[in-house]
Q: What sequence folds into this?
């Protein structure tokens, strides 16, 4: 059995750690590129969600490199994601690829079924070995996320442009050839030290932007046209609550403290949206509200063209923008999104946030002088 899985940002790092620990052969799909997308565009219906098209491209590229089993996470939520596994299986069969697809629905959808499917992957490995591997992979997942957060803090403050990206790119080039969770953790620690040593301007007070939207689109840099890097290069500090590690903590290995905090955030938005309507629309509304109360300068929502839950969230955000007095911009991406227009919109939004900040500071100065 040779397993593959879809790309979603740096998710491949903990997944690699997991399968390395289980001693299972994997094919990490090549980095997403124009070629990956072209494969997906050729074999998916035009109106299918962008993530479905890109991940089909991942599978075909991996199958050509020897993969025969695909593992993906499932969801029974009320949107098209619930059908991804079945639809993708049909598409691959039509293309002549006879591969096994294992869909891991969150355990709350049925713990027995979940374990049956996990056993399909782990085979005859003893349970303790499987649990130990999951535990180590989870640690890798948390550490990878901490590293990404450090990248976001450093990039907007670095003195020598490009230091942060050069360090992180070196890490990504190396990590694919490192074997085992321990080796991966050591590589993360080494990169962490290098990032901490990057020279930054501590007097800088960067504009802060919260990213919200459909989970795949905000996490996968190819699909969001590398928005974190683009904003970081403009001196903006990006905050992104939605993460692979957060998804795992919430759905796969429930972390009580984390879940309680997330539930509080969700409940705080009940005046705007008080239930799950599929995808991560509820999180989009709740995180937007939370970011505005945490003092962000602005919020950017990103969604793939035609994403039903995010369209509903988009219709709610102008009310939050008005009531919380915070600028919010929505970006819709698809295979036709042009880089130049995208960059121009980001630059214009960041200019607006600078103006808003100086207006607020001037007003605050006036209030102080009147007193
Ligand atoms: S959340 Fe949006 S993009 Fe994702 S499957 Fe549902 S409709 Fe498609």
A:
């Amino acid at each position: 059995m040779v397993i593959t899985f879809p790309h979603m940002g740096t998710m491949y790092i903990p997944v690699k750690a997991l399968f390395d620990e289980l001693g299972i052969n994997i094919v990490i799909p090549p980095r997403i590129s124009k070629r990956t997308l072209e494969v997906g565009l050729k074999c998916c219906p035009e109106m299918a969600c962008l993530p479905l098209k890109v991940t089909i491209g991942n599978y075909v590229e991996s199958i050509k490199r020897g993969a025969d089993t695909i593992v993906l996470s499932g969801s029974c939520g009320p949107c098209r994601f619930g059908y991804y596994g079945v639809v993708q299986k049909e598409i691959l069969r039509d293309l002549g690829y006879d591969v096994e697809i294992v869909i891991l629905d969150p355990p709350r959808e049925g713990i027995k079924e979940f374990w049956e499917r996990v056993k399909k992957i782990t085979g005859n490995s003893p349970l303790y070995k499987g649990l130990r591997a999951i535990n180590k992979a989870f640690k890798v997942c948390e550490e990878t996320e901490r590293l990404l957060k450090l990248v976001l803090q450093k990039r907007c403050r670095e003195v020598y442009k490009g230091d942060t990206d050069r360090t992180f790119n070196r890490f990504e080039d190396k990590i694919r050839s490192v074997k085992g969770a321990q080796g991966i953790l050591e590589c993360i620690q080494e990169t962490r030290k290098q990032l901490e040593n990057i020279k930054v301007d501590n007097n800088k007070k960067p504009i802060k932007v919260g990213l919200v939207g459909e989970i795949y689109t905000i996490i996968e840099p190819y699909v969001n046209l590398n928005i974190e890097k683009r904003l970081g290069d403009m001196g903006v500090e990006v905050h992104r609550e939605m993460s692979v590690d957060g998804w795992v903590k919430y759905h796969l290995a429930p972390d009580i403290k984390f879940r309680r905090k997330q539930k509080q955030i969700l409940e705080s938005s009940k005046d705007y949206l008080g239930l799950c309507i599929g995808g991560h629309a509820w999180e989009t509304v709740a995180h937007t509200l939370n970011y505005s109360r945490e003092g962000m300068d602005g919020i950017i929502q990103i969604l793939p063209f035609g994403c039903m839950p995010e369209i509903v969230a988009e219709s709610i955000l102008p009310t939050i923008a008005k009531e919380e007095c915070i600028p919010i911009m929505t970006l819709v991406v698809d295979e036709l999104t042009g880089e130049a227009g995208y960059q121009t919109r980001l630059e214009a939004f960041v200019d607006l946030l600078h103006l808003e900040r100086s207006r607020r500071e001037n007003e605050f100065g006036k209030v102080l002088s009147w007193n």
